[in-house]
Amino acid sequence: MIWRLDVLLLLFLIATALAVVRTKDLLAAALIFSGYSLIMCIVWQQLGAPDIALTEAAVGAGLTTVLFIVTISKTTRREE
Prior knowledge:
The protein has 80 residues and is an all-alpha fold. It has a domain at 24-74. It is built from 3 helices and no strands. The longest helix has 24 residues, at 50-73. The mean pLDDT is 89.
């Protein structure tokens, strides 16, 4: 039963990684990347590394997403 969760998490990781690469909207990519970090947090917890899981949640899903969104909000959109 546990291996099914591992496979499901792996599929979600692959799907979110591909979605980040394929999306054209930077804000959507930042939010999808946040989801990727949250899934990685669950993976680290499943592997028995709660300290790394908390760091991934705080830095990967939290701080990095906020920095991406602030940076994107300070840029202008140019369409040709």
